[in-house]
Amino acid sequence: MALDLTQSPPENLAELFPVPVKTVCLEIGFGGSEHLIHRARENPEIGFIGCEPFSSGIIKAVTSIEEHGLKNIRLYDDDAGKLLDWLPAASLDMAYQLYPDPWPKKKHWKRRFVNQINLTRIARALKPGCEYRFASDIDTYVDWTLSHCRKHPAFEWADESATDWRTPWHNWPGTRYERKAHREGRVGRYLTFLRAADMKS
After folding, report:
1. Binding-site residue positions for S-adenosyl-L-methionine
2. Whether residue 101 lies in the annotated active site
3. 0.85 exceeded by the pTM?
4. Buried (b) or exposed (e) across 140-167, using 16+ Cβ within 10 A?
5. N or C: which end of the chain has fewer CB within 10 A?
6. Which of 78, 85, 93, 101 is catalytic?
7. Could you report the per-residue pLDDT of 82-124, keeping only the tens digit for each?
8. pLDDT tens-digit series, residues 124-180
9. What is the domain-level CATH number for residue 61?
10. For residues 8 and 36, is the Cβ–Cβ distance under 8 A?
11. How many domains are there within the chain?
């Protein structure tokens, strides 16, 4: 299941999977893997790459993958930046982050994964016109991500109304972090950005 970044990636990421897949998506920081497993089960024609640096999440993912006999998932257990640099340019059909660590203290904001360097990495790996999705219940991180993506020349905000960013994506299974947020009285925000066909000036 594990990706070996010491090997060169295939030009077509579908070759990473032992079963035929039509498209390939990346989940950055899959946590307990609930969303990753749900999507892989409902979309056997899509290949999913899950990135998670914590062993507890990896163990849960491997257990669920084996339990359900899934062949359309590959895993990476280190820094997502390294994975994004390894992937061929314009090779992903979607990338997303769901309820990432918000680093809520202002002095720690520099540790947030969303920054201009990592957005450039995501943009390079995404095919033009494809989506980068971000979900969080922390208003400061939602504002942070919106600001950084709107400033980045490779991304266009796809949401057209408040309903769009207040509503989860189609057939949304939720995550355990989202359920915790709801119990604590917070609501999720769901941002969608498109990889521009041409870099904006």
Report:
1. 27, 52, 79, 101
2. yes
3. yes
4. ebbebbbebbeebebbbeebeeeeebee
5. C
6. 101
7. 999 999 999 999 999 999 988 778 888 888 999 999 999 999 9
8. 999 999 999 999 999 999 999 999 999 999 999 999 888 899 999 988 887 877 888
9. 3.40.50.150
10. no
11. 1
